Amino acid sequence: MSLTATTMACDSLFPREPDKKPPALPEAKRAEPVKQAPTTTPPTQPTPPADPGATAANPDPQPTASAANPPKVAQETRFKLIADDASPANTGGLQWAFGASSPNPSWSLDSAKIAYHDGNCVSVRGPDGALVTSLRLPGGKRGGGDSSGECSSPSWSGDGKKIAVGHSFHGPGAVFDVASGKREAELKFGDSGLWSVQFTPDDGGVLGRVHQSGVAMIRAKGSRERVVLVTDKLREMKGYFPTISPDGNHFARVVDSESGMLELATLDPANAEKVKVADPWEDAVKHDALVATRTALIVGVIPEYAWSPDSARVAAIRTEKWYGGYDDYDYGHGALVIIDVATGKDTSYPLSVRNPSWSPDGKWIAVEAEQPGIWLVDASAAQPTLIKLHDKGVEPRWSPDGRKLLAIDPATNEGVVLELAT
After folding, report:
1. Fewest CB within 10 A of the end CB: N or C in the chain?
2. 84-353: which CATH architecture?
3. Cα 351 from Cα 260, distance rounded (Å)
4. Is beta strand 114-117 parallel, antiparallel or unpaired with respect to 122-125?
5. How far apart are CA 75 and CA 73, in angstroms?
6. DSSP 8-state assignment for residue 150
7. Among the listed ranges 105-114, 160-169, 199-208, 233-242, which one has the minimum average pLDDT value?
8. Rounded Cα–Cα distance for residues 348 and 50 (Å)
9. 3-class secondary-structure state, position 36
């Protein structure tokens, strides 16, 4: 999921310090691009029956013209994903599209770099495939050895200088300086680290899920100043895959439920009610909590969702394969759900997709479909269909400048950067 650099009222919680200018990076050597990918658009996928548990769309929607001509692939560049020091004995290779071992790629906001889980923590590369740096965690709790194979969820700071890395088990995550590759801070809450991490839009803190417990925000400089995010109608910390909207005004998480529920809430840290909650691992220790006001609870939605660039909508996936377990990642495909953030209304489109990624101009949503490859959905169409963009790939991610789209080719263990043309 890509975020837009904006300002959120977190400074009162996490005072910012002047940034130190990092040393300049050496100029990356550009890899040779591979031959141009085909740009033909095959027939769209037939529409399967609607999910019976989904919210019905308008009874008689009127077709609308496409927001724009769909982009085409002008050029394709590939690079190896698995790190040279990744140990198949320890990581089992990359478990594509599922779980903490998923590459989970993330663009820097200037579209100049890509961070992803490489099988032994995180690699950072340019769009041409040139390696910038490798990030590694120190020893963890599980045996006391190198904990790098258990890291996950690389997230860029808005200024592109730092990357936050989560930990998929109980060890601490970390904040790294990209230029030097050095670990600057530990991400830890009580006796647990953070997973599914995200910098707040103003870079004041890092948001993440506390292992088997809840959602916490930790100051990027260390673990002593931390708060917990709860909602006014669900005063508990439990929740998965938390995110803050690009404009910093909304908060979302998937609530533990057999059917899956996506919770949306407004977020105003400067004026929020303050409460005390127990540390999930140390009941005697209390921490300040931010209380966000719930605005919607969308039933049947799994932990695959993406904010629109203007924070007005959320693209999510509705499927019956969510079992409510934090370690269950085989969600399968489901109906595309578009949620209006202001009203909480959701509309389902039975396209059988997963892993949505919104284009920076808000016109297109890139998805995986049951048919192989990367597909596009017109985000403004009343009756959207699937438009083929590329024959292979999973986990599509738009570059913030909208000029490229990154996908993962699980058959070859390669990253695929698609340069787009309209």
Report:
1. C
2. 7 Propeller (2.130)
3. 19
4. antiparallel
5. 6
6. G
7. 233-242
8. 8
9. coil
User: Which of 218-247 are b and which e, b meaning 16 or more Cβ less than 10 Å from the residue's Cβ?
Assistant: bbbbebebbbbbbbeebeebbbbbbbbbbb
pLDDT of residue 416: 95
Domain boundaries, the chain: 84-353
Residue 33 to residues 29, 72, 81, 116, Cα–Cα distance (Å): 12, 17, 16, 20
Residue 22: the pLDDT is 37
* CA distances in angstroms from 129 to 189, 277, 305, 372, 382, listed in the order given: 35, 45, 27, 24, 38
Beta bridge partners of 305: 316
Q: Are 25 and 179 in contact (CB under 8 A)?
A: yes
Contact 84, 91 (CB under 8 A): no
Instruction: Say how far apart CA 394 and CA 124 lie, in whole Å.
Output: 19
Say which residue, 329 or 98, is predicted with more confidence.
329
* 111: number of Cβ within 10 Å: 18
Cβ-contact 413, 81 below 8 angstroms = yes
Count other C-beta atoms under 10 Å from residue 88's C-beta. Answer: 11
In angstroms, the CA 252 to CA 241 distance is 8
- How far, CA to CA in Å, does 258 sit from each of 162, 185, 209, 254? 36, 36, 19, 11
* Beta-sheet strand order (sheet of 122-125): 106-107, 114-117, 122-125, 131-135
**In the block, residue with structure tokens 């904010």:** 307
Q: What are the residues whose beta carbons fall under 8 Å from the beta carbon of 209, sequence distance 6 or more? A: 194, 195, 196, 215, 216, 239, 240, 241, 242, 253
**At residue 220, does pLDDT exceed 60?**
no
Task: Identify whether the C-beta of residue 294 lies closer than 8 Å to the C-beta of residue 236.
Answer: no
∠335-213-148 over CA atoms, to 5°?
85
Which is more confident, 287 or 373?
373
Residue 201: what are its φ and ψ, rounded to 5°? -55, -25
This model's pTM is above 0.70: yes
**DSSP secondary structure string for all residues of 358-410:** E-TTSSEEEEEESSSSEEEEETT-SS--EEEEESS-EEEEE-TTSSEEEEEET
